[in-house]
Amino acid sequence: MPRKNTRNTKGRIISAAWKLFYEQGYEDTTVEDIVFESETSKGSFYHYFDGKDALLGTLAYVFDEKYEELKETMSPDLDAMEKLVYLNHELFAMIDGGVSMDLLARLLSTQLLARGEKHLLDRNRTYFKLLRQIIADGQKAGQLRADCTVNEIVKAYALWERALMYDWCLSGGEYSLVAYTDKMTPMFLESYREKAASTK
Q: Where do the domains of the chain lie, and which CATH numbers do they carry?
């Protein structure tokens, strides 16, 4: 039971931080603001985080909360390709509507510079577990090509998504991330479709 409370405290701090980062900007958000918004204490904050900068790496946690929601709402009738396109669209719509380009760029830069744990590559994240399940099921159903391993397809898909986010930040958000991914991701995924499935 205490473990659940611990996770809730940390989760409340993370959720409050990202809400404030979005509403008032990263620079204008203080640790005190986060503690107040999360209804926790400074002691709790510093138990989990060295400071505000440490929270940048937790955007992956926010993404995973979104994936937990999507797991529940995703129609089981979709095939593997449709599920991957759906997840991609929903996450990028969340980024477009709730995560500023500045914060996303900060996350990507902190992950590039991190010497230890890189949250975006953590294979225990909900993100990777969900991808592995969808892709394994897709291969069993004959929807995805079997000459690539599950992990190879997962890696390619995750790399594709990171590349889209990186390019969007690099170009200063001069195009709609959602519109671009909706057009390009199905084409990217097509190369992983089982050829027999595409001719049906």
A: 1-49 (1.10.10), 55-198 (1.10.357.10)
pTM (two decimals): 0.80
DSSP secondary structure letters along 126-150: HHHHHHHHHHHHHHHTTSB-SSS-H
Q: How would you write the pLDDT of the chain (200 residues) with one tens digit per residue?
A: 333 444 588 888 988 888 888 788 888 899 999 999 999 999 999 999 888 888 877 877 888 888 999 999 999 899 999 999 999 999 999 888 777 788 788 777 777 776 666 777 788 889 999 999 999 999 999 999 999 999 999 999 999 999 999 999 899 888 999 999 999 999 999 999 988 655 54
Q: Contact, 63 vs 127, CB < 8 A?
A: yes
For residue 159, which of 169, 170, 167 has the smallest C-alpha distance?
167
